[in-house]
Amino acid sequence: MKPKRGLRQWGKSNFACCESGGKLDDMKHSDEIDYRIHGDDLQTVEVELDPQETVIAEAGAMNWMEEDIAFETRMGDGSEANQGMLGKLFGAGKRMLTGESLFMTHFTNRGVMKRKVAFAAPYPGKIVPVDLAALGGDLLCQKDAFLCAAMGTSVSMAFNKKLGAGFFGGEGFILQKLQGDGLAFLHAGGTVVKRELNGETLRVDTGCIVAFDATVSYDIEAAGGLKSMLFGGEGLFLATLRGQGTVWLQSLPFSRLADRILMNAPSIGGKSKGEGSVLGGLGRMMDGV
Q1: CATH number of the domain that 41 lies in?
Q2: Which of 98, 223, 227, 259 has the fewest CB atoms lying closer than 10 Å?
């Protein structure tokens, strides 16, 4: 069955797909998939597949799937149908550098009726659908942002060529690069804000960037004077995004959430704030905590 191009959506989602124009050059056509996003802050994306359609996803991202959906773990995203073992190993090695699993899971509808499979992010936040064709076929995102995509989407890594951004930009030299002309889903922490840059410069906490298209320039700069850098609580550097294009930002990076949880975990010496009875630690011991 020849893969179809484009995307369809049923139901409602909290985010609209991109609307900026773009041109694709000799890009393989991705499968056309339908989707629906459920929930608010702990979202799930449910993808509807026609017979023989496939969606690729990060290992462990699946929530549920209907009958006739077959899944297979493969080394690679399947965007290069004739890729040899050496190429697959090279691609898997690049994925390891982004901190992701060596393998991706391919979910295919082997039946004769439409079937659904659902995926969820591993921490609280939003799921963002992105139409890669509307972005000209390229999108750069943070290393753990990719959730799933239509078959035919290439998931690889991209090196940031600027030395300062590499050492101090939070995500380092390595970002994930998504290429294709179909639909991809990203996940991010907290609330997600979509910004359109029109020749402007946007300064952002390095952990708050989710994704940006290839027309946006990414660099870092010092966060004010020495006193502000040391005592301002905003870190030593800020990311700068410049140019024409689309940027997605997250309000609560997972690293920030994890740091706050660890800071206040009583089991490792953290401070308990506003919890328990007047008995304090004794009360928690009596509760078995």
Answers
A1: 3.60.160.10
A2: 227
Question: Which pair of tokens denotes residue 178?
Answer: 């998504």
Residue positions counted in the chain: 289
Q: Which residue type, as a one-letter code, is found at position 24?
A: L
Determine contact, residues 118/147, Cβ cutoff 8 Å.
Answer: no
For 163-204, what is each residue's pLDDT tens digit? 454 555 454 456 888 999 999 999 999 899 999 999 999 988
* DSSP letters for 208-226: GEEEEETTEEEEEEE-SSH
Task: Answer whether 185's CB lies under 8 Å from 153's CB.
Answer: no
pTM for the complete prediction?
A: 0.74
> What is the three-class DSSP state of 268?
helix
Q: How far apart are the first and last CA of the chain?
A: 57
How many domains does the chain contain in total? 1
CA distances from 262 to 256, 276, 289 (A): 10, 18, 16
* Helix H or strand E segment including 230: helix 226-231
Could you tell me the residue range of the domain that residue 48 belongs to?
Answer: 34-259
**249 belongs to a structural domain:** yes
Q: What is the pLDDT of residues 43-84, one digit of tens each?
A: 999 999 999 999 999 888 999 999 999 999 887 666 655 555
Residue 29 counted as domain residue:
no
Residue 10 lies in a domain: no
Whether 11 maps to a domain, the answer reads: no
Residue type, 43: Q
Query: What is the predicted pLDDT for the residue at 27?
Result: 44
Beta strands 174-179 and 138-141, pairing class: antiparallel
User: How far is it, in rounded angstroms, from Cα 98 to Cα 146?
Assistant: 11
Return the structure tokens found at 167.
Answer: 């050492």
pLDDT per residue as tens digits for the range 91-114: 555 555 555 556 889 999 999 999
